[in-house]
Amino acid sequence: MRTNRFTEEQIVKIVQEAVASDAATVCRRHGIGRTTLWRWQRAYGGLEPSAVRALKRLEAENRRLREVVAELSVDNRVLKDALAKKR
Known about the structure:
Layout: H1 8-20, H2 23-30, H3 34-44, H4 49-86
């Protein structure tokens, strides 16, 4: 999978620049397609760079917490099965 050559902060600045001026010019200057700019506007439109960092941090924490819940659910199921077999 290809990694992004722009950081989230750079993407937010490019989106803000495209809103303030001509989108086609911004796309040419940064070497991106209009579709990419459109996707970025949907994802990052109206956000500040600090908000993007906070969002990424929250997404990572949410992912970690979901993994913990999944592990605990499996442990719980195993213990319930073991107790059911003992009866």
